[in-house]
Amino acid sequence: MTDWLQLRAGYRQRLVPHGVDLNDTFASLGVDVKPSDSLELSLRGGWGPAIGPLVWGGVSYSRERETWYGYQALDVDAPSTGDRRLVAGVRQQVDANTAVFAEDVSATDVDGLRLARAVGVSQRLSDAFTVTGRYEHGARSTVGAAPDVVRNAGGITFAWDTERVKLFGRGEVRAEEGAVPLTQWLATGGGEVKLHRDVTGSARVIFSHATRLGRLESRLVDASVALAWRFAVGAVVARYTWQQELRGGNERRLHLVSLLTAFKVTGRFTLGAGGHLAGTAEGVVLSASLRPAVRIIAGLELAAEGALRTSSPDGGSLSSLRGEVGYRFDQRFYVGAGYTAFGFSGTGIDNGSTGSRDRIYLRTEVAY
After folding, report:
1. Is residue 343 part of a domain?
2. What is the rounded end-to-end Cα distance, in angstroms, of the chain?
3. Quick one: which of 63, 315, 349, 367 is 20 to 30 A from 278 by CA?
């Protein structure tokens, strides 16, 4: 907006669930205020269908090569009722390419208190390549009791960023020492390459492996590759996703092929469509959707979406109808809210719930 004021909006959408994990779909709005070159204030607020409302704020102050910062977050609703999280730290720029930091983290909820301290270093090895390392040591206890769980975690992150190729990766090991020791290995990585002026290829992978008392407890592999073609009046995206998850002695596999399109028919009318072909242990599921949208005034849009699927993994409806209202900012960012009048939610290819808890949804589109 101005040199001292910035407005922010974000959205995270859960596309395919993993077992009984929490639905972490979440939308947020925020503001950053910079009264001076050294002081910056921020405030964020958001809501998710399962997470509920969250509010958090932060402050940072810089002097010469040092920056002090602090963040406070508050969750007033389930599933983390009364959760309060505070982060306070300092970062020092050693030279133009190296920075070190240390921070303290504390969190309280209805179950007790968690404390941790983290240290790390970030090094720019070249104009395109950056490496960051972080180590954390902490403990958790019920209020008024001695710590019952001690936690250590260490990770390393790298990023390669050029005009044509962007790559990133992170690996982390976590160890919890308590009545039932837990060890987790996590890795994530991905990248994007500009194949042509209008064509982009991308890939990502997530891996996790957890053992408890030396026995395998869970394992997850989630990988995808995509190809996107963006042109003057629309875009076409093709994507393949492979997921394999082991949890509670049960293994689940999913192969998903998706084709997503959007076309600007006129200055006010846009037509979007999507198709998904999924292969699971229960069989093959094919789903398709059509979404016409009309711009009413300025950036205000109204849309309707109809969807069909060939079979029902969750035992629900084979069709779905949704209505939506949203606002589009300069053709680069869109945020909207919708309601499922009847039928399944999401793509419907894997446990698309027909329950009322998933009837309200949030949607965002970002172009860059």
Report:
1. yes
2. 18
3. 367
Compute the distance between CA of residue 214 and CA of residue 186 in angstroms, rounded to an integer.
Answer: 17
Nearest to 141 by CA among 104, 96, 108: 108
Provide mean pLDDT across the span 2-30. Answer: 74
Average pLDDT along the chain:
86
| pLDDT tens per residue, range 277-312 | 998 877 899 999 999 999 999 889 999 999 999 988
Q: Where are the beta strands (DSSP E) in 178-268?
A: 182-194, 199-212, 215-231, 234-247, 250-264
pTM: 0.75
Q: C-alpha angle with apex 203: 14 to 187, nearest 5 degrees?
A: 75
Give me the number of domains the chain comprises.
Answer: 1
Q: What is the DSSP letter of 357?
A: G
Q: What is the DSSP string of 250-261?
A: EEEEEEEEEEEE
pLDDT range class, residue 250, cuts 50, 70, 90: confident
Kindly report, residue by residue over 100-128, the tens digit of the pLDDT. 999 998 887 766 788 899 999 999 999 99
CA distance 156 to 135: 9
Task: Report DSSP state, residue 341.
Answer: E
Instruction: Determine, yes or no, domain membership for 23.
Output: no
Is 270 a member of any domain?
Answer: yes
DSSP state of 356: G
Task: Place 21 in a pLDDT band, splitting at 50, 70 and 90.
Answer: low
Alpha-carbon span 336 to 329, nearest angstrom? 11
Give the integer Cα–Cα distance in Å for 68 and 52.
Answer: 30
Contact 107/86 with Cβ under 8 angstroms?
Answer: yes
Phi-psi group of 29: left, alpha or beta (phi > 0 → left; psi -120 to 50 → alpha; rest → beta): beta
Query: What is the span of the domain harbouring residue 292?
Result: 265-368
The proportion of the chain whose per-residue pLDDT surpasses 70, expressed as a percent, equals: 90
Q: Which residues of 111-121 are buried (b: 16+ CB within 10 A; e: fewer)?
A: ebbbebebebe
